[in-house]
Design goal:
By secondary structure, this protein is α/β, with parallel strands linked by helices. 30% of the residues lie in helices and 26% in strands. The protein has ten helices and 16 strands.
Length: 322
C-alpha cells in the first residue's frame, strides 16, 4: 500500500511583515513562520512581488477601526504556485499568478484561496503584476458606479496616482475623456496616458471649465485625492449621483456622493472588484492597461516603503520584493 503522505507538499519556512501595535512605519517587523501545506480550496504562492498601497498605511496607523493586533498587511501579490490543496484543479504547481483581495501579502510565501488567483500575463514584470489589481479594480468600481461610458468627460482628482492612472486608461477604453488634476511635474505623464492635465489649487473650477472647451462639459467626477477642494469642485460641476470618491472622509460621506472602498460607511464593491480581476489581467497582458512601477523595496524594508508612499508623490506603484 502506497504512502499517500509522500505526495503531500512539504511545510515551507516563509518571511512575513507584521506589527504588534498601530503606529508609524517602525511598527512593521520582519518575522518567520512555518507554512503548512495548503488545505481544501487553497494554493500556496511563492511571492515574487507584493503591492504597497495607501490603504496599507491607513491600516498600519489604525485609522480603519479594526483594532485587532498583531496584524499583517498586503492585499495583492504576484508569484509562482508552489503547492495546491487536494481538491484544487484550476490552478497547478508552477503557474505564475496574481493574487488579489488577500490579507498578509507582505511575505515571501502565502497561502490563499484558489479563487483569489488569476493567471499572470507573461508580458508583465513581477512588479507590474503585483501592482495591477488593487488600483485597477478600484478604478473599475469608480467608473462603473458613476456610469462612465462613451462620450463622457470625467473630472479626475489625484490623477497621477496609481488609481488615477488606471482610471485614465480604462476610461479611454470606454470612449470617455479625462481631465486630470496633478502637480505640473506630472502633467506630461498624464498626457502620455491620454488625459488633459490641469493643476489643482485656487481657481480649479474655472480651469476645469476652460478645459471643457476642448473636451466638452464634465459629466462625471472621480476623487482619488480626498481633499476638500476635490469634493467642492466636483459638487459645483457635476450631478451628485455621478461623483465617486475612493478616499473616504467624514465630509465625503456626509455629502451624499458615492464613497468606495473598505472604510466604514463605504461601498466595498466586493463582487464587482472580484469580477474585474481576470479582465484587467487580460487588458494588461495586451498592453491596453499599463502599470507604472516607480520603486521597489526589499521585504525587510517595508517601513521605508511606507515612508515613501506616505510622502504622497509616488505617481505610480511601489512594490516589495522578497
Amino acid at each position: 500500500m502506497s504512502d499517500l503522505s509522500a505526495n503531500l507538499p512539504e511545510p515551507l519556512t516563509a518571511s512575513y511583515v507584521a506589527a504588534d501595535e498601530y503606529g508609524g512605519p517602525d511598527v512593521l517587523q520582519l518575522r518567520e513562520e512555518q507554512l503548512p501545506p495548503p488545505g481544501s480550496g487553497q494554493v500556496r504562492v511563492s511571492v515574487r512581488a507584493a503591492g504597497v498601497n495607501p490603504v496599507d498605511l491607513k491600516i498600519r496607523q489604525g485609522s480603519r477601526g479594526d483594532g485587532a493586533t498583531p496584524f499583517r498587511l498586503g492585499h495583492e501579490v504576484a508569484g509562482v504556485v508552489d503547492a495546491v490543496g487536494p481538491d484544487v484543479t484550476a490552478v497547478a504547481v508552477g503557474d505564475e499568478v496574481i493574487a488579489f483581495r488577500i490579507t498578509g501579502g507582505y511575505a515571501s510565501a502565502i497561502t490563499v484561496p484558489a479563487t483569489a488567483v488569476v493567471p499572470k500575463p507573461a508580458s508583465l514584470s513581477w512588479g507590474e503584476a503585483a501592482g495591477l489589481l488593487l488600483a485597477g479594480a478600484t478604478a473599475v468600481h469608480a467608473l462603473d458606479v458613476t456610469g462612465v461610458d462613451a462620450g463622457d468627460v470625467v473630472l479626475l482628482h489625484g490623477a497621477a496616482g496609481a488609481v488615477g492612472q488606471a482610471v485614465i486608461q480604462l476610461a479611454a477604453l470606454r470612449g470617455a475623456r479625462v481631465i486630470g488634476t496633478a502637480s505640473p511635474h506630472n502633467h506630461e505623464l498624464l498626457r502620455s496616458l491620454g488625459a488633459l492635465p490641469i493643476e489643482y489649487g485656487d481657481g480649479l473650477a474655472e480651469r476645469v471649465r476652460d478645459a471643457a472647451a476642448e473636451t466638452g462639459p464634465v459629466t462625471a467626477a472621480i476623487d482619488a485625492a480626498g481633499t476638500d477642494e476635490a469634493l467642492e469642485v466636483s459638487l459645483d460641476l457635476v450631478e451628485r449621483d455621478r461623483i465617486a470618491t475612493v478616499v473616504v472622509t467624514p465630509k465625503n460621506l456626509a455629502s451624499g456622493i458615492k464613497a468606495l472602498g473598505g472604510a466604514p460607511g463605504a461601498d466595498p464593491g466586493t463582487a464587482l472588484r472580484d469580477a474585474a480581476r481576470a479582465p484587467l489581467a487580460q487588458l494588461a497582458g495586451q498592453g491596453k492597461v499599463k502599470v507604472r512601477v516607480v520603486k521597489e523595496f526589499a521585504l525587510g524594508d517595508a517601513a521605508d516603503a511606507h515612508r515613501f508612499v506616505g510622502e504622497g508623490h509616488a505617481a505610480g506603484k511601489v512594490v516589495l520584493v522578497p
